[in-house]
Amino acid sequence: MTEVTAEELAARGETCDSILDGALTLIQPRKGYRFSLEAILLARFVRPRAADRVLELGAGCGVVAVMLAALYHPREIVAMELQPRLAAMIARNAAANSAAAVRALCADLRSPRIATLAPAHFDLVVANPPFRALGAGRESPDRGRRLARGGRAAALADFTAAARRYARHGARVAFVFAASRSAELIATMRSHRLEPKRIRFVHPRADAPASVILVESRHGGGVEAAVEPPLILYERPGAYSAEALAMLSHP
Predict the structure, then answer these.
(1) Where are the alpha helices (DSSP H) in the chain?
(2) Which of 129, 167, 212, 225 could hold 202 in an S-S bridge, CB 3.0 to 4.6 Å?
């Protein structure tokens, strides 16, 4: 990444954070919406092919898009983000990590038509929709975080409708979401003809309820789904499991 001083980052209200053992470095806001472990889990869950065209909805600073470019090298990744500041960070992060396949797009996924985006064009659509239902719980005082995580800008149904709009027939659509809303996620996907094919639950500990669900659906697919073994994040407090540690490490 182009050298940026700590003073410059502080003046911009940004931080520079590394992932995958330092293989990737990302600029993100110091306050407001910052990427979380769920984004990394989503990028590890999907397996785009080299010939795939990939769309990420609600891309934040571009962590998933940049990871997919680095790990799988699909031919095209469009990272759509509503907030201009974050969309600009996607472009910066893609350039800094030599992710030439990533194109940042500042747009509202709820728009029925986006001039630079063709419907039924993508082989894989990925998203990390807001986990919290609209109006549930306390809202963040930070506007950017509210938009990204509180569901004010786009709700689960909006993400699902957009995924259906831009996925070609037979394409895959993968979401990471709150496990407590699993039934809602699967029902919403199926109502848009996105049939779940792979499901994996993520548990903080082996003896704890699932906190996250990963679902990969197929546009126009059949009704059978594979429920994969659970992912356990921690083997003991402060110590990742071997599988989680591998996901967070450079391959």
Answers:
(1) 6-12, 37-45, 63-72, 84-96, 143-149, 156-166, 182-191, 242-248
(2) 212
